[in-house]
Amino acid sequence: MIFRLVSLSLILCFFWGCAPNKIVFKETSSNSPAHQPVPPLTTDQLFGLRNPHGMISDPESGQYALREVMENYLSLKEKASQNGWHLILVSGYRTFYSQRRIWNNYDKSYENMKSLSEKARVRAIMSVVSVPGLSRHHWGTDLDISEETLRGQLVKIQPDTPKKVIQFYQWMEQNAPQFGFCKVYLGDRGAVVDEPWHWSYFPFSRVYAGQILEIRNFSKIMDIKVARVNYLMKNFPFILKKETQSTNIECLADGKN
Ligand SMILES: [Zn+2]
Questions:
Q1: How many CB atoms lie within 10 A of CB 169?
Q2: Directed axis angle between helix 67-82 and helix 163-175, to 10°?
Q3: Helix/strand/coil for 74
Q4: Is 252 exposed, middle or buried, given 0-12, 13-18 or 19+ CB atoms closer than 10 A?
Q5: In terms of C-beta density within 10 A (0-12 exposed, 13-18 middle, 19 or more buried), how is residue 110 classed?
Q6: CATH annotation of 38-252
Q7: How many CA atoms, within 13 angstroms, populate the side-chain half-sphere of residue 160?
Q8: CA of 191: how far to CAs of 32, 81, 92, 127, 179, in Å?
Q9: Cys-Cys with 191: which of 33, 96, 126, 240 at CB 3.0–4.6 Å?
């Protein structure tokens, strides 16, 4: 009997993932999308070193995401078009290697600022791009979404931001949560500053975010081709804390997805 219970739990683990701090979903809103079981991701997949299984692409941009994530994005896009907005998916799934390229390019942009300490340089890079291996874009759950008015640009809200752009972000805040998406980077916590374009499919990403915290060995992402890797290694507990603290805790609240 005990053996049967163990095997049953192993089977359930296989389908649902076994993160000890896995959060059980609560369906609190009639608008919540119907969730499939969370696709299990291995550590290599969480790090972006291997593609998650079963991703599909957005026909317009060619960007990839997990099937349920993309289907909800396309439904959101359909609703947006009925309201006069044309969503543009700028970035979906990213591999470790594409994240490394972005990270290294930002690092290079600080090349001439010799007075900047290494700590300040890493913090500056981390405010705009996640450390390769720790990006939420590795999970196939997170999307950078722009709009035709913005010509596909990812823009922050500034005092001189055109009214139409602000109206678009407001529309997204009112509508994206009905399709499972939450705006994870508010800019007042952790490393990443405000990113009004970055939307995370929380029914899945909340689980993967918990699984990242359970990983004890990050040596695979300490790649010598990553700029500032020695600094990252030396300060890794702090780096990890900063990255994982960036998330908007309101996304975890009931009724948000
Ligand atoms: Zn993003």
A1: 18
A2: 130
A3: helix
A4: middle
A5: middle
A6: 3.30.1380.10
A7: 0
A8: 30, 33, 20, 5, 26
A9: 126
Q: How far is the CA of 206 from the centre of ligand 1 (A)?
A: 16
Structure tokens at 123: 């913090």
- Ligand 1 center to 28 CA (angstroms): 27
Q: Which two structure tokens, joined as six digits, stand for 103?
A: 């990270």
Where the chain has pLDDT below 70, the residues are 1-34, 187-193, 254-257
State residue 156's pLDDT score: 84
**What's the whole-model pTM score?**
0.83
pLDDT digits (tens, 9 = 90+) for 50-81: 999 999 999 999 999 999 999 999 999 999 99
Whether residue 170 contacts residue 112, with contact meaning beta carbons closer than 8 Å, is answered with no
Q: CA-to-CA distance for 232 and 134, rounded, in angstroms?
A: 12
Amino acid at 18: C
d(CA 45, CA 208): 10
Q: What is the pLDDT of residue 150?
A: 84
Q: Which two tokens stand for residue 178?
A: 């009905």
Spatial contact of 51 and 45, defined as CB atoms under 8 Å apart = yes
SS3 of 145, please?
Answer: strand
Cα 214 to averaged position of ligand 1 atoms, centre (Å)? 23
Distance in Å, CA 38 to ligand 1 centroid: 21
